Amino acid sequence: MISLERLRSLHAVEAYGSLHAAADALNVTASAISQQIAKLEREVGEPLLERRGRGVALTDAGQLLTGHAERAFSVLRQAEAALDARRAVVAGEVRIGAFATVMRGLAPQALRSLASDHPQLQVRLQEMEPLEAIELLERGDIDLALAQDWANRPLRVPEGLERAPVYDDIADIALPSDHPLAHHDTVALSDLAGDTWISWREGSICHDWLMLTLRAQGREPRVQHFALEYATQLSLVGAGLGAAVLPRLGRGAVPDNVCVMPVTPSLTRHVYALWRSDAARRTAILAAVAAFKNAGAL
Fold first, then answer.
1. What is the pLDDT of residue 225?
2. Structure confidence at residue 53 (pLDDT)
């Protein structure tokens, strides 16, 4: 019978792209990965890796085997989840990836309630962008991802993942305090179509959404500056360098030289929790999802 541990080594090489990356993911040495795969090749009687430039690639037999491996691992995860569901106590470890505003606005209360309600549960929380979190979730490197989309740009959920709504967040517009529209009760997005904008990193969910939303106003957006952190964006807004979108969740202090205004039509983003379908019955995941939902309801 094929060894699952050796199969896991081959699967890791495919998932992470190299022997060294696979070794880092499995907390072993690259030599140990090579030895496991060499033993696996002897078991199946075929080469599973081939040299390609300075790296390695899976042979046809290796790709065939890892396809079956993923299904085997999924069955094992379902079995673990079914056993976990029989237990009365929420315990073990749950690994969570969340983006910055969730880390500030929801995670502190959610983790505090998990610690209080389920003292035998160990939570590991890591800040990351939603697309990165979804990729790690698909690979099995985390158990729960907190991601987002916007009302006019829904998130595509990859096959094999499930999601649940956690929180709906409203975003406002941040303008320099000397902007002609500053201090109005509200501002129409169409009135800002010709302004310079400060956005998130290109290729991110929020940047792509902003470009789509501004183009819907009939003009090509003028995005001049890019910053990951809202505090940085607000500093640039305060310097008169452009306008920015500012969600309310996890919002910190707003500089005196920045005016934050509601916008029409309203800008709504949705926060979701995502997990692997084969782990849907794990009590630790269910408890973590409930904790984030409850934090959003406060």
1. 97
2. 77
pLDDT at 13: 86
- Contact predicate 271/102, CB 8 Å: yes
User: 15: alpha, beta or left, given left = phi > 0 and alpha = psi -120 to 50?
Assistant: alpha
User: Under CATH, what is the fold of the domain 89-167+270-297?
Assistant: D-Maltodextrin-Binding Protein; domain 2 (3.40.190)
Exposure string for 72-94, b = 16+ CB within 10 A, e = fewer:
ebbeebbeebeebeeeeebebeb
Number of Cβ within 10 Å of residue 6's Cβ equals: 22
Residues 205, 130: contact at Cβ < 8 Å? yes
Report, as ranges of residue numbers, the positions in the chain whose pLDDT lies below 50.
none
HSE toward the beta carbon, residue 121, CA cutoff 13 A: 28
Task: With CA atoms as reference, report the closest residue to 155 among 144, 140, 165, 170.
Answer: 165
For residue range 67-118, what is the model confidence (pLDDT) as tens digits? 888 888 888 888 887 777 777 789 889 999 999 999 999 999 999 999 999 9
Check: CATH 3.30.470.20 for 169-267? no
Q: Are 129 and 204 in contact (CB under 8 A)?
A: yes
CATH of 4-84, one of 1.10.1200.10, 1.10.10.10, 3.40.50.300, 1.10.287.40: 1.10.10.10
Domain ranges of the chain: 4-84, 89-167+270-297, 169-267
pTM: 0.81
First to last CA, the chain: 53
**What pLDDT score does 44 carry?**
87
Question: What is the reported pLDDT for 74?
Answer: 82
Those residues whose C-beta lies under 8 Å from the C-beta of residue 93, and which sit 6 or more positions away, are 121, 122, 123, 124, 284
pLDDT of residue 71: 85
**Hey, do 4-84 and 89-167+270-297 end up sharing a CATH topology, with the first three levels equal?**
no
